[in-house]
UniProtKB/TrEMBL annotation:
Lineage of the organism: Bacteria, Bacillati, Actinomycetota, Actinomycetes, Kitasatosporales
Parts forming coiled coils: none
Protein name: EAL domain-containing protein
Portion of the full-length sequence here: 441 to 724 of 725
EAL domain residues: 23-282
Amino acid sequence: AKAAGGNRYELADADSDARAIARHSLTNCLPAALDNGEFFIEYQPLVRLSDGTVRGAEALVRWLHPAHGVLGPDQFIPLAESTGLIVPLGRWVLEEAARQARSWKSAGQYEGPLRVNVNLSPSQLRYPGLVADTVAVLDDAGLDPTALCLEVTENALIGADEDELRPLRELADLGVDIALDDFGTGYSNLSYLRRLPVSTLKLDRSFTRGMQRAPADPVDVKIVEGIVSLAHTLDLSVTVEGVETGTQADHLRLLGCDTAQGWYYARPGPPERLHTLSLADASS
Ligand code: C2E
Ligand code: CA
Ligand code: CA
Ligand code: CA
C-alpha cells in the first residue's frame, strides 16, 4: 500500500491489497479444490410460460471452500478462466449435469425429457477438444444430445468467424441446443444472429426488471416486444432470466416469451428438488 495520500487512500489500498491476496490464494487452491470434490452444482428450473411446466434446469456451479464457505461462480469462474482451469472444471460440470439430466429422464409425464443447460466460458469455446469431450460425456451418461443446451454469452461470440463457430455448429448439428446467454448486453448486430448456430436467446435480466410491478416500464415492454418478434421471425425461442414476480411472469407470457427462469419459480437448489417440482406439475 502507498504510504502517502492520507488515511482514505491507505484504506483503499489496504483493501485492494487484501483483495489481490484473496484472489491469489483462491487461484492457488482451485486445482486441488477440483481434485477434492469441493465444487457442487445447483439447478434452477426453466419453466414454459404458456402452461407453467418445468422443462429443464440450468446448472450453476458453486464452490464449498473449506475456509470461506460457499462461494458463487462470480468469485471463482473468472480466476478459473484466467488460469485455464475452466476447461477441466467445465468438463466436470458437464459430466455432473449430464448424469443428473439422465436421472431426470423418467420424471414428469409430458412429452420429452427434462433438459439441462450448461454454461460454456470463452476459453472452453476455444478449446480444441470441446466437441469430442461433449460427445464423450453425453455418451458416457447415456444422454441424448437434444437433452443438452449449452449457454454461450453474446459477448463470447461477437466477432467470431466461421472457423471459431464451427465447434458450436457441429454440436448444433448433433442436436445440442445452443443458447445465446445475456442477450442484449453485448453489441452484436441483429443480422449477425442469422449466422450463429443458436436456437435460443436468453434475454438478460436488465430488460425485464421494469416489469416487476404494474405499471410496466413502457420502454422495456417495447424492447422485449421487438426482441420476441425478431427472435420468432428467425425461428429462435426466447428465455427470460431473473423473473422475480408473478406480474413480471404474466407480462412476459403476454409478450410471447417462451420460457422463464427466476426466483418467482425457484431459486437454484439441489437436483432432487427439480425432480419433485416437475412431478408436482405433471400431476396437477
Ligand atoms: P448466468 O448464466 O446469467 O446465470 C444466471 C444468474 O442469475 C445465476 O447467478 C442465478 O442464480 C441468478 N438468478 C436466477 N434467478 C434470478 C432472479 O430471479 N433474480 C436475480 N437477481 N438473480 C437470479 P449465479 O448462480 O451466481 O451465476 C452467475 C454467473 O456465473 C452465471 O450467470 C454464469 O455466467 C456463471 N456460471 C455459473 N455456473 C457456471 C459454470 O458451470 N460454468 C461457467 N463457465 N460459468 C458459470
Ligand atoms: Ca447462463
Ligand atoms: Ca444469463
Ligand atoms: Ca447474467
